[in-house]
Amino acid sequence: MQFILIDKILELNKGSDITAIKTLSIAEEYLKDHFPRFPVMPGVLMLEGLFQTSAWLVRESEDFAHSMVIMKEARNTKYAGFVSPGQTLTIKANILKQDETTTTLKATGEVDGNVAVSSKLLLERFNIKDRRPDRQSLDAYSIRKLRQQFALLYDKAEPVLNQ
Q1: Would you state the pLDDT for residue 163?
Q2: Active site residue 66
Q3: Which class does domain 8-135 fall in?
Q4: Would 20 disulfide with which of 14, 53, 57, 152, CB 3.0-4.6 Å?
Q5: How far apart are CA 49 and CA 102, in angstroms?
Q6: How confident is the model at residue 148 (pLDDT cuts 50, 70, 90)?
Q7: How far apart are the first and last CA of the chain?
Q8: What is the distance between the alpha carbons of residues 26 and 149, in angstroms, rounded to a whole number?
Q9: Phi and psi dihedrals of 132, rounded to 5?
């Protein structure tokens, strides 16, 4: 199962910052267990939303040069609120620094203008072929699929033709 934890990218400035949203629906499968009488988005999924938003910024900023963007570290993560069904988590991420293989970002998630989660993220980027030369063909496939998903999330993205 794949959790896509943002619904829409509202704004993206390449190499700089991004704003995305996730509106929590009562239909989210995990809410039946977390917690049945007080349904809220689990903190780890809030953090995952910060990561996913940040990863889209990194991918678009480098024109999808790498098939893999992974979270290497989450530092100083703070939880200060809940996200309940019907509420919207507005996620913002800013690039702090970047080198050949990593990007450091500051990311926050707010509900109604109040910070619910914040973290400093270290993302690593690479191509599969760099670690597994025998799997080189997966890079082009992964990048094509990521571009298609990005076009669905961000209405200013270039349309992606099926190939």
Answers
A1: 53
A2: no
A3: alpha beta
A4: 53
A5: 19
A6: very high
A7: 25
A8: 24
A9: -140, 80
